[in-house]
Amino acid sequence: MANAQGGAQATRTKLIWATGFMVFVALLFGLWWIMKVKFDADVTPEAFTYVAKFEKDGVPPVDAVDLQGSPFDLAKVQTPVVIINFWASWCGPCVEEFPSMLKLVEALPGKVTIVAVSMDDNEKDLRAFAKLFKVPRAGFDVLWDREGNVKRTYAVGKLPESYIVGSDRRLIRKVLGIEDWATENAIAYFKSLSEKSGTPAQGEPEKPR
To answer: What is the rounded average pLDDT of the residues 121-143?
Structure first.
């Protein structure tokens, strides 16, 4: 009888250990998967390479069209600071940060331009969203990257994602995820940045000497 009880106890102990081990392995796998997805989307070596290149040589053209179907020319933007924002109407965080971007350009007219590049597949959704927020407007351009060419050129990993660009059209900072662009500190930062950047040069960014 004692042997039977001992055997049952040993079996229960093994089951507990086995269950605990399986849970531990599952947790490790889950953590690995989360980190893998984040790494792949945000900080791959390729993404680092693009950022370094944009900082040195300037950002590439934004090969997309506006809501009237006209090609967009980044070189013609006259404000000293440009924020190239990648978004979509189905992206909750993108929708959440949109009003703060509008407040930013209203607070700093002639100093900051938002270039909102939509990743929407459906033109109807894009236009409905634009109508809701009353864009485009002064200092706020809306483009449609229908084929995803700009997304690939800028190595966009997830939405929203933004590139802050100076008057020389070199990258100042890449912002991953949602941001409140209209806080007191943010407005002061962009005001200072615009004063340091000066007047944008026409054509290609000047190469470093």
So the answer is: 96
